[in-house]
Amino acid sequence: MTPSVEAPDWCADPKSWPAEVAAWVDAMLRPAGRVRTGAPEQVERRPWAIVLRIPTDRGTVWFKDNVTAQRHEAALVATLSSLVPGAVLDPIAVDGDRGWLLMPDGGCTVHDLRRDTEVEVWAEVVGRWAATARALADHTGALTGSGVDVLGAGDALAYLQRRTEEIAMIAADDPAAVAPEALTGLRKAMPALGDALGALDRLGLPDTLVHNDLHTSNVFAPGAPDASWAVFDLGDALLSSPLADLLVPLRFAARARGTSLDDPELAPVVDAAFDVWADATDPAALRAALPGALVLGCLCRSESWRRIVTPSVAEAAPELATASPDWLLETVALPGVTHATDRA
């Protein structure tokens, strides 16, 4: 059963990595009463993660290794399994130092059900995760202890301003460079973006875990009507305002339906999150803060890409070089953000 996989680019010793992984998996399966029955098979390889499918005598298990910037995912999954049972699958084993994660098979995803055009499906995904995020708001110490970074609403404008100037310093011939006119537009929108973020911050909602890539391909379909909708793929997660997690599902739902983020028919998706927090702040203020939530969601996505796209990744995958700046530029076109360019 020789491992038939290629070591990830970030591995310190590529020659020994496949055998080390196989040995670790075998050792972790034994206490779980499982035995590997075949060679690991590489099913996903990205510049930031590698996923292996591994057959055992009791079904498939999954191994994941993350690039250093996303290595916290393994410890985070273990933490969530303890704090919010059912929100994630219980890991078979975790090696927090190496960022290795061994998971049972979760079955099909919500996306596999081919219901991405149905607003009620997106509302269910958002509402269930919002309830989990609220439960986690009392455990931020455990979350940061798992290695999760923080990007709260109160710090978001300063973050945006700092990143804008960092990007402006990139040489024009660098693949990560952004067109000067795009940066000019972002700077002109800064007052309006600050207003939107300020409205979000004034809600006073606690920071909690933001999945930061919440869509139907990252949620397992429940096996029964009352079963949990377990999420996975948490390498992008941050501590932030819980409403920041509206951006990704709204974008995916709008794309699936061929519409825009501000389509009134998507209101139930937004309401699903608002309902979870309606007793914590003024409901009218919640609605007024939606543009700021979308802006913060873009910043969270940008920060994730900033961590992932190191110079070596940008060299190997030039198409990713501007992934982080592109999310900052996305804020300029968000619905509900009035761009008072004459104030800039």
UniProtKB/TrEMBL annotation:
GO terms for molecular function: transferase activity. It comes from Mumia flava. Residues 49-262 form the Aminoglycoside phosphotransferase domain. InterPro entries: Aminoglycoside_PTrfase, Kinase-like_dom_sf. Pfam families: APH (PF01636). SUPFAM superfamilies: Protein kinase-like (PK-like) (SSF56112). This is Phosphotransferase family enzyme. Keywords: Transferase.
